[in-house]
Amino acid sequence: MFDRYESGEQAILVHINFTQEGEWEDLNEFQMLVSSAGVNSLQVVTGSRQAPQVKYYVGEGKAQEIAEAVRLHEADIVIFNHALSPAQERNLEQLMQCRVLDRTGLILDIFAQRARTHEGKLQVELAQLRHISTRLIRGWTHLERQKGGIGLRGPGETQLETDRRLLRDRIKAILRRLERVAKQREQGRRARNRAEIPTVSLVGYTNAGKSTLFNRITEAGVYAADQLFATLDPTLRKIELDDVGPAILADTVGFIRHLPHDLVAAFKATLQETQEADILLHVVDASDDRFRENIAAVDEVLLEIDAHEVPTLLVMNKIDSMEDQKPRIEFNDEGVPTRVWVSAMEGEGIDLLFDALTQRLASEMVSQSLCIPPSHQGKYRSLFIQMKCVQQEAYDEQGNLRIDVRMQQADWARLTKREGAAFGDFIVID
């Protein structure tokens, strides 16, 4: 469908430093992205500008320098560490006579390589199609040719219109299939909610060590590697926490600066595990000099997916790569754990992480004593047993049921709201 230059594995990298705030990208991270995609970097072309140029993104002279590097190294592809417009991609490809890929396209390519499950592959394809659909506009000249009314095309329909229609149809088909997957996930979440099992979701910048920590806690054997976006498909495992009981731990896809919006939209179903979690474990590579910027980048994505209000516990990982850092828990002024310093690789501080997680989840728990008259005992006793929140129960001389319950604060709020004012009369106030 798309008449583009074939991409290969020998690349010229282009990284431009901008004085404008918000345009800046990290060169080391870019090189890790390229390496993760399995591409061999032949040369890195760098430069500085105040703002992107309209035609080539870089200046005319820098564009000629890149084209010369392509010819010198016989490169297959030029990769920009920036988001290019469709017109800029087209202009650069004409000048370079090879495939040009921007940062968004590179990330999509890595995601396509990493996707393992049916859902993951569908989500990546959806993101790719949405990205490609913008590249049809002002694309190749053959797309404007008129076609006759034979086969799929209507009378006088241009190639561009046909391609757009085929893309729309495929996107609709994928969305329908993802909707079915989302319903299955929702059923699983509802079942966990009925069983009153809290969910703990791992989030963090890509390559922060989430999967290594996940494996250390659950012994799940999830694929973990020192590369960006090693994990795409979410994995759920059951863990046991003292004073809380069973909990579900979810490993999710890593975030990155300027994460393409197509990816955020496509991975909505996956990221819902993060939105609906009781607490987020925000894993941070504490050995990275830019860990504060990485934390801010993750917070930005959490805001974008409406998960910014979920309680968060920071996990400062990779202390084995740092000097004078010991496993420890940091508390706020109210004595609530806010940070835990650990090494997922070496297993240091994992017991402290469990302690902090238990304290945070336990603080979200409510303990109540109720005195229920015989007329209401059948209803509420069966309800509390179903919720698995009964601590102890006994009957007094008048036949009233004295029952102690412990449950999530949110569940108690829902219960009291649903049952109304009369339910408040059963609560024993010591």
Automatic annotation (TrEMBL):
Record bears the keyword Transport: no
Subcellular localization, as worded in the UniProt entry: Cytoplasm
Hflx-type G domain boundaries: 198-365
UniProt KW Ribosomal protein keyword: no
Domain of life of the organism encoding this protein: Bacteria
Which UniProt keywords are present, listed alphabetically?
Answer: Cytoplasm, GTP-binding, Magnesium, Metal-binding, Nucleotide-binding
Q: What does this protein do?
A: GTPase that associates with the 50S ribosomal subunit and may have a role during protein synthesis or ribosome biogenesis.
Q: Family membership, please give it.
A: Belongs to the TRAFAC class OBG-HflX-like GTPase superfamily. HflX GTPase family.
Q: Which HAMAP family match?
A: GTPase_HflX
Summary of subunit composition and partner proteins: Monomer. Associates with the 50S ribosomal subunit.
For this protein, the record's NCBIfam families field holds: GTP_HflX, PRK11058.1
Name of protein: GTPase HflX
The record lists the organism as Vibrio ulleungensis
